[in-house]
Amino acid sequence: MDLGIKGKTALVCGASKGLGRGCAEALAAEGVNVVIVARNAGLLEQTAAELRQRYPVQVIAVAADITTEEGRASALQACPSPDILINNAGGPPPGDFRNWERDDWIKALDANMLTPIALIRSTVDGMMARGFGRIVNITSSAVKSPIDILGLSNGARSGLTGFVAGLARKTVAHNVTINNLLPGPFDTDRLNATLQAGASASGKALAQVRSERMAQNPAGRFGTAEEFGATCAFLCSRHAAFMTGQNVLLDGGAYPGTF
């Protein structure tokens, strides 16, 4: 299927590895020029070099912390008029809400709610004026099925979800869609760190904890960054123009609800 986005330009946040990289790679494979942003300059440049080698598109790397005003300014200087925006930032740490102070909440809101809103604000009017735009926010399956120890993430990402629900109905008439991708257990560094922590706490071998966690999922495995990226690329395509304000859950069937 031709996604109809060859020659477009995408700003992809958190793109040096994991799900962000999966999205950047899937878009590049469709002929989209990508501006990739991440904090780790070395890893980011390595990712950029690999994308340039594999795909005949322009790849610009911006080493910056997208959750800061300075970082967003650097990203937008490199990509002032993106056709596609992929919002992505690491989630806040787990814990007990009794131990979180105001600064913990503000940091979570800055990273997982206010940063994507700021980037949308900076880009959405230009998209509407040009008659094309695709915004995808990488959030979490916890938006659909909250996890008690991830209260900071539950709160901040749910706030973003509510904001998007209203705005997405205003932009779609201009062929600008805004959707959220909700990952469940994907085989990323973040998941591996969580599994390692579980192994250390339980005294079990990492391989055993990993196997047990996979067995708990109806699919019997973890998701891959490649299949996550493919879903993202479809949401960015011309074929998804009638799909907006949606929360697309990719979790191997772990969420047990009908709706």
TrEMBL record:
CDD domains: BKR_like_SDR_like. InterPro entries: NAD(P)-bd_dom_sf (IPR036291), SDR (IPR050259), SDR_fam (IPR002347). SUPFAM superfamilies: NAD(P)-binding Rossmann-fold domains (SSF51735). PANTHER family: 3-OXOACYL-(ACYL-CARRIER-PROTEIN) REDUCTASE, NADPH-DEPENDENT REDUCTASE BACG. Belongs to the short-chain dehydrogenases/reductases (SDR) family. This is Dehydrogenase. It comes from Undibacterium terreum. The lineage of its organism: Bacteria, Pseudomonadati, Pseudomonadota, Betaproteobacteria, Burkholderiales.
